[in-house]
Amino acid sequence: MNFFDQIQWVFKVLWAYRLRSALTVVGFAVGIASVTLLTALGEGMRQFIMEEFTQFGSRIVAITPGKTETYGLGGLLNTTRPLTLDDAESLQRITTVEFVVPVVFGSGQVKSETRSRYVDIAGVAGRADKAWKINVAQGRFLPTDNWQQPRAFAVLGSQLKQELFGHASALGQTVTIAQSRFVIVGVMESKGEFLGTNLDELIYIPAQKALQLFNRSSLMEIDVFYKPQVSAEQIAATISKRLIDRHGMEDFTLVTQDAMLKSLDNILSIVKWVAAGLSSIALIVGGVGILTVFSISVAERKQEIGLLQALGMNGNQMQRLFLAEAITLALVGALAGYVMVTMPLLLVTFWMPSFPFEAEFLVFVGAMILSAIIGALSGIQPARQAANLAPIEALRDE
Amino acid sequence: MRLIDYFIYALTVFVRHKMRTALLLLALSMGVASVIILTTIGEGARHFIHQEFSAMGSDLLIILPGKKETQGGAPPINGASPRDLTIDDVNALKTINSIDQIAPIIAGTALIRFGNKSREVITMGSTTPFFALRNMRLGEGRLLPDNADSHHSPVIILGSKVKQELFGAENALGEWLNVGDFRFRVIGVLEERGESLGLDLRDMAVIGVRSAEMVFDSPALFRVILKLKYAGSEHYTEQQVRSIIASRHEGEDDVTFISQDAMMSAFDNVMLMVTMVLGAIAAISLIVAGVLIMNVTYISVAQRKHEIGLLKAIGATAKQVKTIFVIEALILAIIGSAFGLLGAIALIELATTIWSNFYLAAPFWAIFAACSTALVVSLLFSLVPAKKAAQLDPIIALRSK
Amino acid sequence: MIELKGIEKVYTLGGRPLKALDSVNLTIHRGDYLSVMGPSGSGKSTLLNMIGLLDRPDKGQLNIGGVATESLTEPERATIRRDKIGFIFQSFHLVPRLTALENVALPLMLSGVPLKQRKEQAMAGLAQLDLDARADHLPKQLSGGQLQRVAIARALIMQPEILLADEPTGNLDSKTGLEVMDLLEQVNQQGLTLLLVTHDLSLGKRAPRKLQIIDGKITEVNEHRAFN
Question: In chain C, whose CA is at the least distance from the CA of B2?
Fold first, then answer.
């Protein structure tokens, strides 16, 4: 019996028992569909989050004061070993550094002449707009010069501008934060949320003013954007050396965007595969389904088996035929499940391109291989049973 | 036909088809067990977080400096604030009669040096009530002096890991060490205990709040923890605190409150969602098991055509025939659920003996949901083939090969 | 009493209508013993199924014990089948996984008789046919004659008014077949109506009333002219 004959035989049998074949396929397809759906959603989520983080570019090194693991509280805590504006300026002078953004973050009441609002305050420097990829809608961003004695300028997020000034122009007006007056030089475009912070309800002021305002000596973070010709490791080494030279010891934590993205990516991948793993329980139940239907089939088709044996088919061929049936069912089920999930989702992404969904070819191949294995595993026992049936006994059975 | 007879009749079918019955039970019990186990893990995680919170006591309020009106940003972690919340503010709050205990906290990382060893450690400046509020106990030595909120005294209490790293097995009590630029004497070592809400209690140090003000050269409090005298007085207390702060801050009540309850319920909701999603993922396998039941019931109907024809000839109504097949599926669901439940409980028991510090118990609602899903799925999926059986023409059924 | 008035039943076979029963009029009295003969496809089985309420006529009336059966619902017809009609088939139709006793008890189960009582009754039924020793045997452990006797015991268990036997000896050797016939006639002599469908001339002759059916038309044959 050549391969083509076998395939034809298998499909004839499956067609003869089409109802049970169809239902077996459906059961298995639901399993594959759940695996595919969850991996696809997991992958979509991973890419969505990764995009959130990579939108600022990947050539970034973030430096926070203190060497200790602080559970994300980072720059919020006081420190006996501050990172200063001088440090930031010194890093700015490294030739492979494109620019540096010092960051002090806090919150407080911002008052216009008539209105006031408690919002987040970002103490930064010029070019922070470029770093965070937010465009200026009106006016300009903070000036890039003179970090140590900056002029009292401020830039408003789009929503904050609305809240404080309504439709009137804000440029040239002043706002007060804790008795300090700031002249508004720019208003940003709307950007939405990032990690739970509403970037549109933010006021940007020079970092030095923020340090004064919050009565702090240390910056919370220094973001270094470096040039493409150096690697993350190289720039990290350069920065480390520069800061250790200045501080006498390594009293800061340095995280490259690369490393951060890598560990984030790891976590998200794990989440994705765990979800896929959990959903494969359904796949295993689908495998039990194939096993069930097959053991019934072998019992039912004893006469056919006996006849084939009488006609000279040997046990090996018999076993292969039944195995081929099981594997075919699993593969058809896998294909059906995959199509069941990907087609609607592809349609959704067609209408909503931002929908976090990613159909991976690798998942498809994986699903097919996994299905073939499950099909073979569930088919092997019934197939053996068929192969080992004594022909006389098989023929006699009614 | 009596209900019990449907069961006895189904039993004869199961005995005749042991293999397929066993496989159907396997499929169902796997589905039920996976729903129960996954939700149990989810509930275990929720319970763990619960415990972490309630270890702190449920009548705690946390005051953060600063305030914002922007929405979003789940836990209100503010950065710095232009108007500091100070130790004097906290002392003023002590007059509020619904406050049982209150502890100001200044937090920072400080370099602690002893001999030629140095380590950077999260250092909390606070007062004596802090220990009770955070459920921290001393392994040896004594607590901070009672006047820590008014006077600097050069004493420090170390976490067990910090003590170990600086002093090894040597005695640390009474030794002098450097915190930043200041000299402190060790008066206590904390009891060995794990993490609590993201703070490794072994890897920290506690000094008086006035001392911390000096070490970090900043009067700004990181936060204030207070314990209420009576449960349910959060709202009243918040009002009182706000009015006192406003009177001291030129009319601005620029503080933010976090209540233990609010945080706990926020976590609770998230964890419950995660648990539900886990359960739902596992429940897909029950659907697959349902399709299998449908398939096997169809096969069964086809194989038992003669029997169906005979039953009808000797007076079974269509409804009785339908019920026979549906009951078969339901019994499978019941037994499968029971096996699944037993299997899940066995695995959970095993897990609790291995990881005894992690609370695991199958939540009742999950058991109920898993078993009833199995039942409903079996019922729905067997209904179609059972109907087919009921509608078989007895003449054709009897004649069929 | 069973009355058929102008019963008609038409099947379509291969696109063409086929009259299985053509204005059949027949009255069967309690205790009658009728045989129905005819070539295969003549409508014998249709007549039997009609009287057994497994089939519905296209036209005409069928009264059983004074009840007009056309207007009955399916469940009502099922109840009549259960309580008043006993079926005996050529291929016995015992449920293979049930013991002889359980097979006999099936109609009792359907009518809701409790298990214990059911067992006693079925046992008594089997004993009457000398089958009590086989009560716990499965069908595959019984001989053909025994199988048919179990089927007869099942048909009798509800004490029906009429026994419908469709080629009851068709799957049996002649000696066993005759034994089964004797048994059926014995039951008939106790007052039970017996309707026997067969194409075996020698068996058909044994009945006092002989019906011949050809192309759906039924004729009652007189003794002396019968089947020559």
Answer: C112
Say how far apart CA B275 and CA B43 lie, in whole Å. Answer: 7
Distance CA(B159)–CA(B153), nearest Å, equals 19
C-alpha A12/C-alpha A98 separation (Å) is 69
Contact residues on chain A for B30, CB-CB shorter than 8 A:
281, 284-285, 288
Residues C24-36: tens digit of each pLDDT: 999 999 999 999 9
Average pLDDT over residues C7-12: 90
The size of chain A, in residues, is 398
- Residue of chain A with shortest Cα separation from B125: A78
Position A359 scores a pLDDT of: 66
C→B interface, C-beta within 8 Å: 49, 52, 54-55, 74-75, 78-83, 85, 87, 89, 93, 95-98, 102, 106-107, 109-112, 114-115, 154-155, 158
CB-based contacts of B202, cutoff 8 Å, min separation 6? B159, B160, B161, B162, B190, B192, B193, B194
Q: Considering only alpha carbons, which residue of chain B is nearest residue A199?
A: B70
Cβ–Cβ contact A247 with B under 8 A: no
Structure tokens belonging to residue A94: 């490294």
Local structure of B231: helix, strand or coil = coil
Do A296 and B296 make contact, defined as CB atoms within 8 angstroms? yes
**Closest approach of C161 to chain B, Cα-based (Å):** 13
H or E segment to which residue A194 belongs: strand A193-194
C28 to chain B, closest Cα gap in Å? 20
Q: What is the DSSP letter of C219?
A: E
CA-to-CA distance for B207 and B125, rounded, in angstroms? Answer: 5
Give the least confident one: A58-72, A204-218, C50-64, C102-116. A58-72
Q: Judge whether residue C228 has pLDDT over 80.
A: no
> Are B313 and C54 a contacting pair at CB < 8 A?
yes
User: Measured between alpha carbons, how far is B340 from B329 in angstroms, rounded to an integer?
Assistant: 16
Is the Cβ pair B218, A284 closer than 8 Å?
no
Q: Consecutive 10-residue runs of chain A (398 residues): their mean pLDDT?
A: 79 87 90 86 83 79 76 62 88 90 88 87 87 86 86 92 88 89 92 74 91 86 90 90 88 84 87 85 90 87 82 82 89 90 80 69 84 90 84 65
What are φ and ψ of residue C41, in 5° steps? 80, 5
Q: Are A343 and A12 in contact (CB under 8 A)?
A: no
Predicted confidence at residue B72, as pLDDT, reads: 42
Which 165-204 residues of chain A touch chain B by CB within 8 A?
A: 177-178, 193, 196-198, 201
Say whether C81 and B398 touch across the interface (CB within 8 A).
Answer: no
3-state secondary structure of C193: strand
Does position B270 have pLDDT exceeding 80, yes or no? yes
Local confidence band at B47 (pLDDT 50, 70, 90 cut-offs): confident
Nearest Cα to Cα of residue B239 among B99, B347, B80: B99
Q: By percentage, how much of chain C surpasses pLDDT 70? A: 97
Q: Which two tokens stand for residue A310?
A: 């009488």
B309 touches C: beta carbon within 8 Å:
yes
B234 within 8 A of B259, measured Cβ to Cβ: yes
Residue of B nearest to C164 (CA): B313
Looking from the CA of A161 toward its CB, the CA atoms found within 13 Å total: 27
Share of chain C above pLDDT 90, in %: 75
